């Protein structure tokens, strides 16, 4: 009997959702506009006002942040993989080394954001505004950047291998020493872009 009670308790604990813990973190974020290293995965934060919020190293995996205001937010080393950031305001945000793999950033505002060494592999950045953003050494392989605004964007040593850059605005962008092998650059505007030392094998520049 004792053994069956212990087993039943163990199963209950394993099956229990983490919603209480997540709610506690969400309450903390709402009260203080900060939640470093918090577990906020899969939280619904559509149109949330997180202006200058401190979410450094937070787990925001699959978090719904569509049209959220994250202007100037601290998201250094945060996990935003598979997150929905469609139309979000991320201008001046600190996303250094953030994990944005497979995140949806279409139509988002990332002007002057710090995305150095960020992981944006397979991310959706269609029509995103990345003008004057710093993407030095960022991972953008297989990313969709169709019609993205990359005017004056810093992409030195970025990995853009097999990315889709069709119809993008790359005027005056710094692409020096970047890897553009296999990238689709058809109809993109590269006026005054710096491609010094860039890898362009199999890239389509037609």
The CATH fourth-level homologous superfamily: E3 ubiquitin-protein ligase SopA
Integer average pLDDT: 92
CATH architecture: 3 Solenoid
Biggest sheet descriptor: none
SSE order, as H and E?
HH
Overall body shape: elongated
Please give the share of residues in helix: 10-25%
CATH topology: Pectate Lyase C-like
DSSP strand tally:
0
Distance linking N and C termini? 75 Å
Q: Using only CA atoms, what is the Rg?
A: 20 Å
Structural class: little secondary structure
The number of distinct helices, counting runs of at least 4 residues, comes to 2
Total domain count: 1
Poorly predicted ranges? 1-21
Task: Please report the first level of CATH classification, the CATH class.
Answer: Mainly Beta
What fraction strand?
A: under 5%
Give a brief description.
The chain is largely without helices or strands and 206 residues long. The protein has helices at 2-15, 19-32.
Q: Can you tag this structure with a few keywords?
A:
206 residues; little secondary structure; Pectate Lyase C-like; elongated; disordered N terminus
